[in-house]
Design a protein that fits this description.
4 helices; 0% strand
Length: 103
């Protein structure tokens, strides 16, 4: 797999950020998610992983794909930060709702 210059620059920056903020016993981490990996055209996937409010918000966004990916990443972060034992790749994340700051 060939890495573009911008992807490499992003990876290096995130690695430096992680190293600067993580301690010996820290659970700090940085995940990079390819937004194309979030299958928003798969209704079953969307229903299992996003609440009705999240779906409505993301579908109205200027980039629904990016919006769903952002919420997905936030849900994974919550899941990991709580130390929840993984229930496998098919575990639904709709039980976690990411709220919007409607200003």
């Amino acid at each position: 797999k060939i890495e573009s210059a911008s992807a490499k620059q992003t990876r290096v920056m995130l690695e430096q950020l992680t190293q600067a903020t993580a301690g010996d016993n820290s659970k700090v981490g940085v995940d990079i998610e390819d937004i194309r990996a979030i299958h928003i055209d798969d209704d079953t996937f969307v229903e299992r992983n996003f609440t009705a409010k999240e779906q409505a918000y993301c579908k109205k966004a200027s980039s629904p794909q990016a919006s769903f990916a952002g919420r997905w990443s936030a849900k994974e972060a919550v899941f990991k930060s709580l130390g929840v034992t993984s229930r496998g790749g098919g575990a639904p994340l709709a039980e976690i709702e990411i709220l919007s700051d409607d200003k």
